[in-house]
Amino acid sequence: MTVDVNVQDINDNYPRFTQLFRASIYENASPGTVVLQVTSTDADESGVTRYSLLPSSSASSSAVADMFAIDSEAGTITVAGDIDRESTGDVLVVRVAANDGAYHAETTVTIDVLDENDVAPVCRLPGSLNAIQTTEDARLTVIVNVSATDADETSPNRDAVISLPGSWSRDFVVVDGGEALAWRRSMPFQTTLPGGGRSSPLNAHRVSLAAVDGGRPCLWTSCQPLTVSVLAENAFTPQFALSSYSVAVPNNASVGFTVMTLHARY
Ligand SMILES: [Ca+2]
Ligand SMILES: [Ca+2]
Ligand SMILES: [Ca+2]
Ligand SMILES: [Ca+2]
């Protein structure tokens, strides 16, 4: 006679992930955005594999597991928290477990975080120099060096320069690749009366600059306005503190004796 023997499966094999997983997402991806799906095999017929995220091993990235969620049956990893490349870095490593009820396997999923232009540039104008003085200047003479910085991680999102926002300026132009402010034209020193008088209020020129980055769309920040005052050519002539000095010298003073030291100031 023939005897059919039914071999009953028992769960005696570990689940295995089918590959090493790697994916990329943009920072600031909204919750629910699908990152990737992990898959596994199991030689057993019985048992259902469930997936879960494991806490990160290192304390520094302990929050990584909170940034993502996993569908326990499908293995689909989705965004669940705030992902900011500037604070979390460009690579996140997520630990995933597959559990068949008796055995479990682990793998790491590497997620590259792509940079978005989400940080506005910052003006770097000379400290406390919101009032700059220049003498009568020739065209394109640099008035002040300026620059901008941007905390975004990659080009062109972090490439920031200074520019004149909005309307074209009659008096000023930004030169040196966005790193210096210059006169667009020669600025004469003006007086309140023809050929004399006091310095005219017209010698104070106000300019508003902005820091602009290279992202698309670009972000920008207004800088503190600058006032550039044109002074007369001789405004910086050195001056003695007194118009005359008198000093006593001993009658036996030898050659080389210091009579007095004079100081002149601008
Ligand atoms: Ca199994
Ligand atoms: Ca960011
Ligand atoms: Ca960014
Ligand atoms: Ca930026």
Characterise this structure.
- The chain is mainly beta.
- The chain folds into two domains: 16-114, Immunoglobulin-like (Sandwich), CATH 2.60.40; 122-236, Cadherins (Immunoglobulin-like, Sandwich), CATH 2.60.40.
- Helix content is 3%, strand content 38%.
- It is built from two helices and 24 strands.
- The chain has helices spanning 64-67, 85-88, and strands at 16-17, 21-26, 34-37, 40-41, 50-54, 68-70, 76-79, 91-99, 104-114, 122-124, 131-135, 142-145, 147-149, 160-163, 172-175, 180-183, 191-193, 196-199, 204-207, 210-213, 220-222, 226-231, 239-240, 264-265.
- The strands form nine sheets. It has a four-stranded mixed beta sheet with strand order 2-9-8-5, with no helix packed on it.
- Strand 8 (91-99) and strand 9 (104-114) form a beta hairpin.
- The longest helix is centred in the N-terminal third of the chain and has 4 residues, at 64-67.
- The radius of gyration is 36 Å and the shape is elongated.
- The mean pLDDT is 88.
- The structure holds calcium ion (4 copies).
